[in-house]
Amino acid sequence: MKDESGRALFLRNGLAAILIAIILTLPFGFTDANYFGDKGFLDRFGGFSAVLTGFYIAALVGIASFAPSIGDLDEQIEVGKITRIDDDGESENLTRRQYVCSMFGYLSFVSLFISVFAIFSAIFSSFHVIDIIFNVAGFRINFSFVIYLLAIFFINLIISHMVVTTCHGLYYLIDRLYAKKPKLLLRE
Fold this sequence. Notes:
Elements: H1 9-12, H2 14-30, H3 41-65, E1 83-85, E2 91-93, H4 96-124, H5 129-136, H6 144-176
Antiparallel strand pairs: 1-2
Helix pairs in contact: 2-6, 3-4, 4-6
């Protein structure tokens, strides 16, 4: 999906997501804080993310089943148009309902992915996979700390994009979804 200027939607909140990811990653670079292990940051956020998955799915079902009389749900977005490429390769403008459903569908998937990934990271955190890979490959320099930080940053980038997109989705649900075009009423 793209906005009216042709940019991919995931890039719209990119700067905020990168800044949040950097802020989340910094403590793990300077301290020996637990990120991947049992009761670590990812384990705790994974539990929270599992709860969010249910919220996102409930929001998705709610939006999909709202009555057409609520707002202009089934009208194309006029200000800040969102487009997607359909099966024929043609660009099509989305309605508010399609846009919000795809946003909460994306958030449901990312939240479920983080929950499952957090479970596996807690299981495999006791293995020193990075050290084994670099010792087998013949590297003499220990790159494991750099790779460790890059892995944390990448996961935090996914988490922060989910947080920023959640804020965007909540704003859209609270304010923009019910916005209607003003209509001129005639005197009787």
